[in-house]
User: Which sequence fits this backbone?
């Protein structure tokens, strides 16, 4: 954890890494100094936080130095592509392949160009909201209105995690009432502040948001112009079930579950519901020695078996979700294929 | 009520403020980075103590930027650019110490005024801030851009330089995170590997101010530096608080402008000191002295950028939306402790709220004392021989450029590119100050302008959106008319001489 | 106001709107400068010849060449010991020394000592501070 790393610095600044004895004497494939680049340039965001938790745990467990560098997606992929020695690893989430599926300029298929690795956690927060005074109270209202020919404007940040739920809405409208998908239109905005502002300015009927950032707005009195209401949480119900029972703020886990499948249904194909979990996973250079992947597999298995990391993740509202390399690859490939179909279906 | 005030709490604020000043004072290292670097430390400290450290870093980091701005002419942080305009001329005239004192006192006032506004009016102001849509934000940016005209020595060349700055800032991706479509433009073939996200601000800034200045010195053979005797510490430049007697209006206005700009999410820190500076210039009875070592310029710039500190916390604490890049990282500190920020924050966490106010208060006082006591030692920087000082500055510029985006080597090359560009620009009589202002404000101007038209589909929206838009237009027209008037008056005066 | 003021911006091409506007304004301003300052622009060759003659060429181009070498060497050197900041440390020592000597006027050995001392103290100090205490990336 971060305490150890800092303690090391404070108490033994002189004992540089070169001198420090490794704490675990085992075949060490991972280099001593590892740079974990992330696909976000924010050090206050969820990708950084989640990566820091994992990097601290791995550093302590393996006796190495692992530093998280928030260089942003394009630079992170470039840095990973340059380094096949395993001194640069990457952690990112579903955005890594979604941006390619959405055709964002300059993005590559990470499954082909890199090696997709272990998943470590889920941020279950991805949500859609309406203004409290909105005529649409539920997702059902939204889709019914679209079927009736009303235009529904949805504020998203295009080309990734924020857009996938919108695509699912369009797809569901198409499944329910073919032709009505044209009534659900995107309002392309930027970060959360922009999306909220789009609602307050009357430019959007539905906005993409998150449980963490928007829950307090749902607690405001009805006459407050800033008040919002959840209509849909995209996470799988089994993911939300693992969240702390007290939920977030004044919204309990049971309250949150009301907005997620199956209680709130956005259909995928008429029988199944569409769900989306924002998962964080490792990415490796495709030419890197696979012994490193095995070592990370072994280390994470032990770390997750010990159990401390889960507490820390839950404390920051992340759902622990370790899948070893083989399972993660199968899971993420299947996940990507599902979303590729949805996106192909509506475009 | 105040049981969070422990010796540790106070110690952390002072330590944070000190470290923040150091970060701010090194060209290329910013308050944002100081807070980011220390964020992991706050996990074991707990919320109140963690915030004490981070707020100290924030206040210190914003203030520390004035030191290199005044003494070396290199803004330590983007928000201290306007401090260089008058601070550096004062330092070269041997009044570095006086300029520092003025800057520090103004920083303190700016910080305290904005803190008082934060404490008294946070929720009300947040309600007002959400009245600002893309249209009003564009007009604020446009208003800040009119400063280019006020800062130009030659109106035509100055505005051309500013436009060039905007143009260069548009290179690369139309940023998807701010609402763009992610397409890359203005990048020559084969360069998208380096330029897909454009040039980053900080390397451009320290290249233009730091490297350019050193190249200019090298060009004239690095004449021997100041000797200690040059530093006027005698009676003629003594600082007294009397300087501020005529500056009370300026101080209060600038502090309020800084606070207000801080409240608007996305408008950004550099706009605060720019607006304060241009405002001070238009209100001044002798605007022609600005840019040549006018104390009122330092007062406006520093009161403005420290005013930002309290302002940027308003949307953070009452909407859960950061007011600038540093407060964006503060959100991380809250989530690390499992605390939500949003419209209910102040009501749900009264203790944390008062701890933050007290921490900001102590941090401002600590900043003042630490810097005020250090002034005599700081001012000696200009006595260091250039062959010792310059290599160290060059090395620190590299550290700053490389670490600002957590390790991108192209940022180091950017430093050199813009160092050379700056040298060439001066030779071509282009003006660096409007250029950098255009470069800083260009991306926000683009987003808000294009998004206004995209959302409303009508150019007239800029005039008809709200009464706020109308007020902003009046300010813009007044600012432009003022610049034109002064430019003509200055011309006729030089012609009459 | 009617249709005169109406504009439709297609999101997919919206990245070009602002560059075109600014580019046009820039072009017009450039043209205005060309016309207004045609006399001094015509005199440019003489102006540059003067700059060239007055220039301290060794120090000016020396700075550029040293800086190019410094920036260029940092990454390859750093790659030998990845993620340790060694590239920065190893390249900064000679660079600081060389620039210091370049800017020195009186290059007697007595005056070289302070620069040598600076070159062995300043880079390791900042390397230690940034990579160990602040845990930041250096090349």
Assistant:
């Amino acid at each position: 954890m971060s305490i150890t790393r800092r303690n090391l610095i404070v108490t033994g600044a002189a004992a540089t890494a070169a001198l420090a004895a490794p704490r675990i004497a085992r075949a060490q494939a991972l280099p001593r100094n590892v740079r974990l680049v992330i696909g976000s340039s924010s050090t206050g965001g969820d990708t950084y936080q989640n990566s820091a938790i994992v990097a601290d745990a791995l550093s302590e467990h393996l006796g190495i130095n692992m530093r998280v560098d928030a260089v942003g997606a394009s630079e992170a992929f470039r840095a990973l592509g340059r380094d096949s020695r395993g001194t640069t690893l990457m952690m990112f989430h579903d955005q890594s392949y979604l941006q390619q599926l959405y055709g964002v300029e300059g993005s590559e298929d990470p499954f082909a160009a890199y090696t997709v690795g272990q998943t470590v956690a889920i941020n279950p927060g991805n949500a859609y909201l309406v203004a409290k005074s909105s005529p649409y109270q539920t997702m059902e209202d939204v889709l019914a209105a679209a079927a009736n020919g009303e235009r529904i404007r949805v504020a998203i940040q295009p080309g990734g995690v924020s857009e996938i739920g919108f695509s699912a809405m369009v797809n569901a409208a198409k499944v329910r009432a073919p032709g009505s998908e044209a009534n659900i239109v995107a309002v392309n905005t930027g970060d959360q502040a922009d999306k909220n502002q789009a609602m307050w300015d009357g430019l959007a009927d539905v906005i993409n948001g998150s449980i963490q950032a928007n829950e307090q707005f749902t607690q405001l009195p009805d006459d407050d112009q800033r008040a919002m209401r959840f209509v849909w949480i995209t996470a799988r119900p089994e993911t939300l079930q693992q969240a702390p029972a007290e939920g977030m703020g004044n919204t309990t886990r049971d309250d949150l579950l009301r907005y997620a499948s199956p209680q709130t249904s956005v259909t995928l194909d008429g029988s199944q519901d569409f769900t989306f979990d924002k998962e964080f996973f490792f990415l490796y250079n495709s030419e890197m020695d696979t012994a490193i992947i095995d070592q990370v597999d072994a280390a994470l298995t032990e770390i997750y078996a010990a159990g401390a990391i889960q507490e820390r993740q839950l404390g920051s509202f992340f759902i622990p979700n370790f899948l070893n390399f083989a399972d993660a690859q199968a899971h993420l490939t299947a996940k990507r294929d599902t979303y590729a179909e949805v996106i192909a279906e509506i475009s | 009520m105040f049981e969070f005030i422990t010796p540790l709490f106070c110690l952390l604020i002072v330590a944070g403020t000190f470290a923040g000043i150091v970060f701010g004072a090194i060209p290329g290292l910013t308050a944002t980075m100081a807070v980011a670097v220390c964020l992991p430390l706050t996990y074991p400290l707990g919320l109140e103590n963690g915030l004490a450290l981070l707020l100290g870093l924030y206040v210190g980091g914003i203030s520390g930027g004035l030191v290199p701005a005044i003494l070396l002419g290199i803004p330590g942080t983007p928000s201290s650019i306007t401090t260089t305009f008058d601070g550096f001329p004062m330092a070269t005239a041997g009044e570095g110490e006086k300029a520092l004192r003025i800057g520090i006192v103004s920083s303190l006032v700016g910080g305290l005024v904005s803190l008082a506004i934060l404490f008294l009016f946070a929720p009300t102001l947040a309600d007002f801030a959400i009245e600002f849509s893309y249209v009003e934000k564009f007009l604020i940016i446009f208003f800040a851009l009119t400063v280019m005209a006020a800062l130009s020595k030659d109106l035509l060349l100055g505005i051309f330089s500013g436009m060039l700055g905007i143009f260069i800032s548009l290179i690369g991706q139309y940023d998807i995170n701010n609402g763009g479509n992610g397409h890359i433009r203005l990048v020559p073939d084969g360069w998208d590997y380096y330029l897909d996200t454009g040039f980053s601000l900080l390397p451009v800034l320290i290249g233009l101010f730091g490297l350019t200045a050193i190249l200019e010195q090298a060009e004239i053979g690095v004449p021997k530096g100041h000797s200690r005797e040059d530093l006027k510490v005698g009676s003629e430049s003594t600082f007294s608080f009397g300087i501020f007697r005529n500056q009370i209006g300026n101080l209060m206005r600038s502090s309020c402008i800084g606070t207000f700009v801080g409240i608007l999410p996305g408008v950004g820190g550099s706009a605060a000191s720019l607006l304060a500076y241009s405002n001070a210039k238009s209100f001044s009875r002798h605007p022609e002295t600005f840019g040549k070592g006018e104390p009122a310029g330092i007062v406006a710039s520093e009161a403005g950028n420290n005013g930002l500190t309290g302002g940027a916390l308003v949307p953070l604490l009452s909407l859960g939306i950061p007011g600038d890049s540093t407060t964006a990282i503060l959100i991380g500190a809250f989530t690390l402790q499992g605390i939500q920020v949003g419209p209910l924050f102040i009501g749900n966490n009264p203790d944390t709220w008062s701890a933050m106010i007290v921490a900001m208060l102590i941090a401002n006082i600590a900043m003042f004392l630490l810097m005020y006591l250090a002034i005599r030692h700081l001012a000696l920087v200009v006595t260091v021989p250039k062959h010792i000082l310059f290599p160290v500055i060059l090395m620190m510029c590299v550290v700053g450029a490389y670490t600002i985006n957590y390790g991108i080597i192209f940022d180091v090359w950017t430093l050199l590119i813009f160092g050379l560009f700056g040298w060439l620009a001066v030779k071509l009589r282009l003006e660096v100050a409007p250029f950098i202002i255009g470069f800083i404000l260009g991306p926000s101007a683009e987003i808000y302008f294009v998004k206004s038209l995209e959302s409303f589909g009508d150019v007239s929206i800029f005039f008809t959106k709200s009464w706020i838009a109308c007020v902003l237009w009046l300010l813009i027209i007044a600012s432009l008319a003022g610049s034109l008037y002064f430019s003509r008056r200055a011309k006729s005066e030089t012609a009459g001489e | 106001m009617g249709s005169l003021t109406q504009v439709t911006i297609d999101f997919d091409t919206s990245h070009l709107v602002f560059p075109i506007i600014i580019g046009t304004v820039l072009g017009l301003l450039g043209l205005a400068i060309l016309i207004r300052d045609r006399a001094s622009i015509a005199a440019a060759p003489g102006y540059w010849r003067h700059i060239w003659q007055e220039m301290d060429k060794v120090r000016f181009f020396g700075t550029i060449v040293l800086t190019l070498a410094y920036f260029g060497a940092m990454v390859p050197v750093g790659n030998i010991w990845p993620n340790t900041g060694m590239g920065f440390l190893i390249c900064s020592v000679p660079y600081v020394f060389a620039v210091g000597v370049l800017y020195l006027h009186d290059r007697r050995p007595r005056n070289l000592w302070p620069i040598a001392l600076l070159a062995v103290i300043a880079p390791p100090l900042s390397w230690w501070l940034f990579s160990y205490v602040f845990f930041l990336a250096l090349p």
User: Anything to note?
Assistant: The helical segments of chain C are 17-36, 38-42, 44-54, 57-80, 86-103, 109-133.
